Structures are given as structure tokens and as C-alpha cells.
Amino acid sequence: MHPSCSSCSRSVRAEPMKLDKEISHPSHPHHKLKIEYTETPFCCDGCREAGIGLKYKCDACEFDLHKACALAPSSIAHTFYKKCDFRLYSNPPGLLTRICDACGRDVLGFVYHCNKCGFDLHPCCANLPLRLDDGERSFYLCRKLSGSCHRCGTKGLGWSYKSDCKNYNLHVSCVKELVVESWRAMYANVDKNKVREIQARIPSLRGAMQNHHRGRVLGKARRCCQIAATAVRIIISAILGDPTAIIAAVVGAFISK
Q: Alpha-carbon distance 108 to 118, whole Å?
């Protein structure tokens, strides 16, 4: 276990659970949803967040749910909030805007909410593995950062992934921003010749890392960027609801260029 983080029992290398090929879901009662694998980004009709990889889909209505949203239990407990009793809501409770305490983004649909403490979690955020492993090093999910994030350069609020060597930190919110920025370029309705130009203007992790390490020996800074790029790939896969190496490579390759 990482000394500054909680239990690391969940890992991306865990054996996959058996999934039903077809399910019924109360959010879409008229048709059954079939499991599908896609490398094309989609917007989950449950939590309204981005997704990729395994999803449950209604072909008749173009209705999509993250695997995590489709199979979300009605209540959960979370290591970071030991006193909380999270209940699943199909819409944010109350009249005020709700914010996910993991990623800091607005809650627009499915949410785990604790009535007693007021905390909110997107289903995919609630399902983030406490430990990620890229084969060489491990990254641990932490509620608060003790050092600065390599993307934004601040400690900030919200959950983060921290390497076991304590040198690499990434906010979950910052990784989500990278995904959105990159997808806007990749799938923008523009002339194909302009896509590369748009992508060049998008802040990349590598650019942020090089600014973060300004003044270091070039070789060390480059190595640090490469390690962080690997971290981003596996973190992205977990955030999008399908923590697999294949998805990580698909969505992470263009971000670290």
C-alpha cells in the first residue's frame, strides 16, 4: 500500500468480470441494451460524461450507457468517505448545481450522492481503481495531492493519481480536460487538412511537462515526460469507464505527441 493513500485493492490488472450481453435498464425501459465495444468516443446518456470502449447501447434510439453507469449498484461505500452512504440518483438531487467531488465537473445525470455529508461522485469516478499499473510502476488514487500536478502545476482540489516514486502527479480533472480538448480536434467538423493544425494548438501533456520541468537537465525532463505520458494513457482508460490497455493506447497516443 502506498503510504499516503488508501487501500489499493482495485487494479487495472484485475480479472474482468463476466458481463451480460443484453440488459434491461430503468433509465431506458422501452428497449433492451446490448453490450458493444467502440473506439469512437460517445456521450453517456446516464451521467452525461465522455466514454469509450465497452458500453451498453440501444440501436433503435442511439442510447448509450457507460458500463459503470449501466451496472451501477443502487448504493456504494467509498474508501475516501468512510462515513458516507452513497445512493444512486438518475438526476442530481435538489435545486443547486451539484459538483463531482472527484473530478470537479458538473453533475448532469447519474450521480452517487450522500444525503448526510453532501458529497457527489460520477459513477465512473466512483469506480476509479485505487491502483493503476503500467508494468513498470504503480499509480495510486489520492483524495488530495501533497505535490503539484504535472498538468496544471497546482495542488488544487479533487482526486489525483500519484506514482509510487512520488514524482508524478496528475489530477483526474486535468486528464479529463486533456481528453475533451483532444477529441474536439479529432472529431471537429472541419476540413481534414485543418485537423492537424487544430491539434497543434491544443495544450498537450508533453508541453505542460516541459514547462513544469524548465531548468532541469534535458534528458531527465524528457524521461519524466515519457513516464507521465504513460501514466496519462492508463488514467484516461480508467476515467472513461474501460480500464484496458487497448483503450489506453487508442485515446492516449495523440495526447502525448
A: 16
Model pTM score: 0.74
Condensed to tens digits (0 to 9), the pLDDT of residues 63-111 reads 999 988 999 999 999 999 999 999 999 999 988 899 999 999 999 999 9
Which grid cell sits at 33? 441494451
Q: What is the DSSP string of 198-229?
A: HHHHSPPHHHHHHHHTTTS-HHHHHHHHHHHH
Same domain, residue pair 150 and 170: yes
Give Cα separations from 125 to 134, 178, 227 (angstroms).
Answer: 20, 16, 23
Return the number of other C-beta atoms located less than 10 Å from residue 154's C-beta: 11
Same domain, 101 and 145: no
DSSP string covering 26-67: TTEEEEEEEEEEEEEEEE-TTT--EEEEEEEEETTTTEEEEH
Domain end, chosen from 126, 151, 181, is at 126
Q: Find where cell 494548438 sits.
A: 201
* Residue range 136-163, pLDDT digits in tens: 778 889 998 888 887 788 887 889 988 8
Q: Is residue 19 part of a domain?
A: no
